[in-house]
Amino acid sequence: MKKLIGIAAAGAMLVALAGCANGAGEASGPKPLDELVVGFSQVGSESGWRTANTKDIQAAFEEAGIELKFSDAQQKQENQIKAIRSYIQQQVDVIAFSPVVETGWDAVLNEAKAAGIPVVLTDRAVDSKDDSLYESFLGSDFVVEGEKAGAWALAEFADATEPVEIIQLEGTTGAAPAIDRAEGFAEVIAENPNLQVVASQTGDFTRAGGKQVTEALLKSNPGVDLIYAHNDDMGLGAIEAIEAAGLVPGVDIKILTIDAVKDGMQALADGKINYIVECSPLLGKQLVEIVEQINAGETPEKRIITEEGEFNQEQAIEALPDRQY
Ligand code: GZL
Prior knowledge:
Elements: H1 2-17, E1 37-42, H2 48-64, E2 67-72, H3 77-89, E3 94-97, H4 106-114, E4 119-122, E5 136-139, H5 142-156, E6 164-170, H6 176-189, E7 195-202, H7 207-220, E8 226-229, H8 232-244, E9 254-259, H9 262-269, E10 275-278, H10 284-295, E11 303-305, E12 310-311, H11 313-319
Parallel strand pairs: 1-2, 1-3, 3-4, 4-5, 5-11, 6-7, 6-8, 8-9, 9-10
Antiparallel strand pairs: 10-12
The site of beta-D-galactofuranose has 15 residues, from helix 2 and strand 9.
Domain Periplasmic binding protein: 38-298
Protein name: ABC transporter substrate-binding protein
Keywords: Signal
């Protein structure tokens, strides 16, 4: 029986990719863009990055004249699964989402596949072994972002003769950016055994989380030299905690973050953050292009990695006036 279901699901997906399925799994050929409906499940609104990402995606679909059904999961996987199931019920043409964590998606993605609805991953990845469950992944290479952060730390403390104590503020537990940014950073700093992560805890990508965790970890690690935060928002929370402790952020304790959203770049320009690795939230235009390709019966690239840079204080001062987010 299972085999039969598998064949039917595969058939439905093949039919669906020859232009968006009409929900009953029949190929209906390319639809006019103003008849397309896309269901999008967003992680939440936990950070400046997320706000910019949401705005950019909504604006891109508005501009393309494609209907976007949007749901905010408040960082809860069960809310994303509910939203995806609702989009399946509504027989949308494409489902796109940013998975809050890597695991636990196969069941609902198989339901979308059985319904003949193509799925696109944006921003974060899933750990599914079956990559037929999604058409494309569009987002950053978070391991590379961690490696870039590690390379700056190596250079910044190259002449250290004493151990360099590092506190790591992790993103959401189980989220691809948290897992990969930690992995890339650890790999690179291993080159200098003086650089030691003395404490690592999740601040859940929020400013409040970054502040709370930093307050606690400063007490148990008074000699910390560097805070490596997986995003600007937790780094901004760390600044508040450092100042509350009567210390000078960026001087007494250096701060290294990832994202490069406006508030983070302003803190970098002010010398309170020392270096930022960029992670672009501007995925809207490319997501629309992927949806248009699927609608036209074309096969999008499986993995589309966004271009991004890195900033020191001088570069932040220069970039700030034109910063889109
Ligand atoms: C990265 C994204 C992360 C950002 C955080 O692509 O998933 O989630 O780095 C955001 O700011 O909360």
